[in-house]
Amino acid sequence: MTENRTSKSDMNTNSPNEEEAKSVNLLQLATHCIYSTLLASKPIQYLAEHKNLSSKSSKNFYDTNNKSDSDVSTGSDCPRVKKRIKTDGTVITDADGLAQSIIYSEIHGLCSSVHVIGEESESEMRLLRDKIDGESLGSHVTNKDETLWVNIQNEMSIYDNLPQSDKIIDVERVSVFVDPLDGTSSYAKGNYEAVTILVAIIVDNVPVFGVICKPFAVGTVLHQYKNTNCTILYGGTLVRGAFVLGHEELLRSRLWSDNLRNVIITNNNPCDPDKSEIKSISTPNSATTSPTTSTTSSQSLCANESQSTNQLNIQKPQRRAIISKSRAGGVVRKCIDSLSSKELLHDTPIFITGAGYKTMKLLLGDENEALWFFPRPGTSLWDVAAADALLRVMGGRISDKFGKDLDYGRCVDIAKIKGSHPRLEAENEDGIIACTDLDLHLKCLALYKEEDWDCGCD
Question: Is the alpha carbon torsion for 413, 414, 415, 418 positive or negative?
Fold first, then answer.
């Protein structure tokens, strides 16, 4: 369990008393969520670094002299990464259960009453805890890092001016969704580009904070936090934006905030989107504007203090869809063909694997990634909860194929039953439509219904 920590602010008044068990400080919880993903990255990185790393080593895992992820294999099978097939047919490795166990412990160390819903079952976490008990691997994956904690806490302290009523709420209103290792199949093969750790805070069935931790640098040039080799994106309505940990606000988040006053949505009807109306859209992701920096590296997509929106050169966008290559046919192809024929989307999608990595691409927009359309089962709530929280603060939205908000409450109800795991309830049976642009999202929904893209598709 997490050791008690103290600070000058109310972010860590963690005295375990009866009153605290009934309430939780959301800002504290968000800070623990970020910290927990960095701790969870340790076994993921450790098991991947299998070639020249002694299991008897006692050095600090985040020591700057450790192998960097640039030395990690990115194409061969990993002897240390032992994969198994779960009863639902999906792949799991030792790292999945270890990472989730660490995240659970960190969050429950703050407040044991918070409902945490993770992809892996309690039995899987218990199996891994028993497996590493007494082994040298345990010291590598369970060590805390107080300096790391203080650094994260200091960054999050800038949000301490939130009203107390917005921070401390009844714990029964709160749940945390966790995918401890998104991209497990790729990870087991030694392909680390799409590997992420996903955590989201849900309040009253609405995502308010999300964390995406990328434990390997391959596939990104974004800022890595301290000496962890990890890149972390975090944000949501709780902190009013989307940010790179230790760096700055994402450009799409900054521009949406700057232009929010110009967006008016009237007669919003998510269940019948073609009856909705959007006026005065002037967001960076809309059909009329797009920064030319969208084709540059991810670093350019973080706002810096010297850059203003007036300095950006504007050009007609070539917004892109992202999808897994294996799912690019059928109804997805119909969507892309229809939107591209109306000059709403580029006719060639970008193939990306992994829900977390897709979300990162949408948030950063390196190549004007704007739409993730998959109106079929195949994702779960823990895959997309962080995306749901983060897209809300940059003018985007995620819904099912009917335009309805995702229902997280059905998982929480099952998770409250001792010994139960809400795997079936977490399935997004009606698929997902994730978009960085409300206007494009509404048009996609309307055309999906009007043109019956499902017709003739298996």
Answer: positive
